[in-house]
């Protein structure tokens, strides 16, 4: 039996605690965010290796040079995220980068001035679009799944990552509709959860509750992921879909393919917010349902919904 001194024990215990701290810190961000940070860091590391520069700890001039280099073919938002990723990696390693360093701040300012452009908003799917999208779907298994996914995604104002994370166990059918337990979201990393009410629709063809019941009945799914991949033989996967599948279902819809606009997996959530604002839903009620934490973010949908009604040019009499 090997004995260790009290000092050695303290060192070992401190190392164990440090590892635990790092583990919890790494879990403070969502899985998607951690994947993005890891990919960004690997790109910076490879760039430094190719240039013969040190990546950890990196000189601020090295970070600035990297940002300037990638700015020629990357969006400003991507450049900003790369900087955040590099800072996160350094912080985790105990080499914090100075946010106010002039090399970095001035370079980033110059990049924004040279390449900055208004953020391209995703086209919202409004109620009229949703009706047409559902109507264009087939009556096969994929059509029934896609119908339920689109209607639930829209009425619940769900993010695409939230849609594919839903499980049958998260559904509670009531006489008014479905109460969906959202266990975790982008703005709820601590997992407090939220209950989202999905009411019966007045039109059976576009009712999200009936659509979910039809999907469960046809798919025979009784537990686990609610929405799953279906192969060409009509076989349903045991695993849930990936978030990119939501965007593909939207973009491949016949109605959406006939329209102009930058549609994506966010179009369902954007559509709910825009339609709700246009229909006179109050800020408080809308934000409560969509789980928006920032008032300014919600208000941009209100502005989008009222851009024509509030236009002074309509009053010109031309």
Could you characterize what this model shows?
With 318 residues, the chain is mainly α. The protein has 2 domains: 6-114, Tyrosine recombinase, N-terminal domain (DNA polymerase, domain 1); 127-305, Intergrase catalytic core (hpI Integrase, Chain A), CATH 1.10.443.10. Helix content is 53%, strand content 7%. The chain contains 14 helices and 5 strands. It has helices at 6-26, 31-51, 60-70, 76-93, 102-115, 127-135, 141-155, 160-165, 208-219, 244-251, 254-257, 267-278, 283-290, 295-305, and strands at 171-173, 177-182, 194-199, 228-230, 236-240. It has a 3-stranded antiparallel sheet, with no helix packed on it. Strands 4-5 form a two-stranded antiparallel sheet. Strand 4 (228-230) and strand 5 (236-240) form a beta hairpin. Helix 7 (141-155) packs antiparallel against helix 9. The longest helix has 21 residues, at 6-26. It starts with 5 loop residues before the first helix and ends in a 13-residue tail after the last helix.
The level 1 CATH classification of the largest domain is: Mainly Alpha
Radius of gyration equals 24 Å
* CATH topology tier name of the largest domain: hpI Integrase, Chain A
Tally of contiguous helical segments: 14
What is the distance, rounded to the nearest whole angstrom, between the alpha carbons of the first and last residues?
Answer: 95 Å
* Main β sheet profile: 3 strands, antiparallel
State the shape. Answer: globular
What's the structural domain tally? Answer: 2
**Helix-strand sequence:** HHHHHHHHEEEHEEHHHHH
What percentage of amino acids are in beta strands?
A: 5-15%
Overall helicity: 40-55%
Strand order of the largest sheet: 1-2-3
Do you know the CATH architecture of the largest domain?
A: Orthogonal Bundle
Which class best fits the helix and strand makeup? mainly alpha
Mean pLDDT: 85
CATH superfamily of the largest domain: Intergrase catalytic core
- Low-pLDDT runs: none
Total strands: the figure is 5
